[in-house]
Design a protein that fits this description.
Two copies of one chain form a homodimer. Chain A has 447 residues and is α/β, with parallel strands linked by helices. In chain A, 32% of the residues lie in helices and 23% in strands. At the A-B interface, strand 5, strand 8, helix 5, helix 11 and helix 12 of A face strand 5, strand 8, helix 5, helix 11 and helix 12 of B.
């Protein structure tokens, strides 16, 4: 009997997950490797960071996804080395041979050389980062509610978002919504002091969409009292301030980094030919230039369509996962792989407060309809019936009541920045109401 | 105009939370202080640890609870000192005077002098501890699925619970249920190798209930393949083993500590007269022996009823919260406080797999009815409509399908023990299936 071919997929994001599922019907034994035992539904990360949904709802166990995929296995490990010549992977002191390899290691945050950004800004790419950001934001609110120093309070209540792409816009929008919930919990806090600033280096937001939609987004955010700063570059981030390239600065303890990303090329594969954002060059079949049996997909791969690079959205990754499974199936049968072609069903972006934008074919949409479509599409794609139902109920709760349910601050995780509230003296830290307690003059027992 | 009296409540557990809510209608200004900004619904902690419900669902924001309580405020701080003579509290470098003080600081884990327990056993008293235990358990399963060494696998799959009270029984029961979900995700793991052991120093489980119910519980757990060890004492806990007083030992990497607790007396108040489990002595009105305007309630207070000490369940704490608010209202009006009397509506304990026990008045219940009642009662008492609905749906999902939805392992928190998988050599760590990948003899490309 002929031995079944072995396919290894590295990375359980959108593209890797889809590749493993599709491959399991290809006649190959499939091994999926990831450092996490869950798949993160990245588009909803910002809602975790904004205390809107539970982190568990967008983290679906890889093993559960693979239940329905025969001949597939999961290995929780970190890949150290890929030996393309010998066709062997090294992962946590295991040597794993492969016939076919699918690299889907995704992307990581790119700090663009901005000094202090690595240490002080909050990226929003992983579940742990989203949780850390949530705790940080909630802690700023607690601290702001306890200080009577207006300067310090203003600094604690200033939230700066660097990057005007979808993540930046979503984060700015959701913070304006969070305000309403905060209002109910901190009745003594004057929320007109809460500043939300979005900084974009180019002259339009959402620059992967037509500029008309970018302009609409900027207007909508402005109406929600977000300060939209276009054509501005951040030059430095400290624990207390963000500094702009033209010299001005803004006191803030919260800088969300939604500015750039680069491909997360496995250390062992750095010899591969790389292009823009360190993405790996591939043929139009998604095979590596030099290796017929190795594919790169998702954010890792540099793929062009009609002369323009793909933008790194989930549908591209999913379609690539399906395509390489089909190509490997063809290779197993002795046929040639076929070029990948992305079918663009349209693009949607959510802004917040019942507003969004979208482009379906030639039609541009703004307002409530694309907002609702965004939520609908993401609900449908979210894996797991239980998660879907619970997220739906969470949305009905938060959008219906203008409330946020989750506001626990857990003890610091390793990812949480320990930014001390600046120059806080004992006398400063006193909420007007608590100050009343402190000035309590008499100590006569009433009984 | 007469100044309104000021009441300060330390601790936002069952008793403190209830005290603050009831006090806010007493005519006093109320300040509630806790180190966390949320109230933990402790009875469901074991379900968080067993990957059944999201931690956020049982952590309700204190500020949200206090929305409906006029004249009440919340301060997130750690209390360092109480000066009973001057009627001042020191919390995070603030001095806060009070007219009435309610101490509701609860209890903490008591390791009973067992060597290694502090470092190696997993307590289950706080949300962070429950999350840490969840990650630990899920990690053991991942590791067990990857090793081909039967001795190591047995050690990874042995879960020892120390303590046969409600928490210990709940934890043992839920682990037997978790097995079913694990079965689906790790089809290659032989779950007959999974050992769940509950160790009780006395001769009956649930010793606060009639012994007939304890015997039923032991039989039920045994039928679920839990090894019930009665009259056994643990003498030592290491990262690899648990050792018993009579000399035997058991290789395990997971010891859940559900054995003992003692009152969490604020450091400043240690001069107070203490009794059993370091609980603070109070009058029958719940006032401190020496201070008319200071109350101690909940797990902190030693309260007797008909010559027997109260057992530390939630209804006792809630009723005490109401009682001291009434007493303080009486004191404000110049009347004498009244003795507290606990009205016992009954006791319920959940075992698992649709079984529970209960005592309502003179009636003893076993089986499905008390199981269902336990869930119902806890659903009703869980704060927050959203949490209640989401927990209900989670239960329908997990009890209906025998599945567990949440299985993400996040990166280690400070609370998570970093227990290395013992003596793992590269050759040992190989799942039979992954071993097949490794033994792959030829490296001929198929294309």
């Amino acid at each position: 009997m002929k031995r079944r071919p072995r396919a290894v997929v590295i990375g359980a994001g959108f593209s890797g997950m889809q590749a493993a599922q599709s491959l399991s019907k290809s006649g190959a034994d499939v091994l999926l490797i990831d450092r996490n035992n869950y798949n993160t539904f990245v588009p909803l990360l910002y809602q975790v960071a904004a205390a809107q949904i539970e982190p568990e709802l967008i983290a679906y166990p890889v093993r559960t996804i693979l239940r329905g995929a025969p001949r597939s296995q999961f290995l929780r490990a970190e890949v150290q080395r890929v030996d393309f010549a010998d066709q062997v992977i090294e992962a946590d002191s295991r040597r794993i041979p492969y016939d076919y390899l699918v690299m889907a290691t995704g992307s990581r945050t790119q700090y663009l050389g901005v000094s202090g950004a690595v240490e002080n800004a909050f990226p929003l790419r992983t579940l742990e980062q989203a949780i850390a950001l949530r705790h940080h934001i909630l802690q700023r609110l607690e601290q702001a509610s306890q200080t009577s120093d207006p300067v310090l309070r203003q600094q604690l209540l200033t939230f700066v978002i660097v990057g005007g792409g979808p993540t930046g816009v979503e984060m700015a929008g959701t913070l304006t919504e969070l305000k309403k919930a905060v209002k109910k919990d901190y009745p003594t806090l004057d929320l007109r002091e809460m500043r939300i600033v979005i900084v974009q280096s180019g002259d339009t937001l959402l620059n992967n969409l037509p500029s008309r939609l970018g302009r609409y987004t900027a207007r909508k955010l402005s109406r929600l009292n977000v300060e939209v700063m276009l054509n501005m570059r951040v030059s430095q981030v400290s624990a207390q301030t963000v500094t702009f390239a033209e010299g001005s600065c803004l006191p803030t303890t919260t800088v969300v980094w939604a500015a750039g990303l680069k491909a997360a090329v496995p250390e062992a594969a750095i010899a591969l030919e790389q292009t823009d954002k360190q993405k790996v060059k591939v043929r139009d079949t998604l095979q590596l230039i030099d290796y017929d049996n190795v594919y790169a997909i998702g954010d890792l791969a540099y793929v062009q369509q009609q002369g323009k690079p793909l933008t790194g959205v989930a549908p591209e990754a999913l379609q690539q996962g399906v395509a390489i499974a089909r190509n490997i199936r063809r290779q197993i049968k002795g046929k040639d792989p076929q070029p990948f072609s992305y079918f663009n069903k349209g693009r949607l972006a959510i802004i917040g407060s019942y507003g969004g934008v979208g482009k379906i074919g030639p039609v541009l949409l703004t307002g409530f309809l694309p907002w609702l479509m965004w939520l609908g599409v993401h609900l449908v794609y979210l894996p797991g019936f239980r998660s879907r139902l619970l997220v739906l109920l969470s949305w009905l709760h938060s959008y219906g009541l203008g409330d946020r349910a989750i506001r626990l601050i857990l003890s610091p995780s390793p990812l949480q920045r320990s930014i001390p509230p600046p120059q806080v003296s004992s006398s400063q830290v006193s909420h007007p109401q608590i100050a009343k307690f402190q000035q309590h003059p008499t100590k006569t027992p009433l009984v």
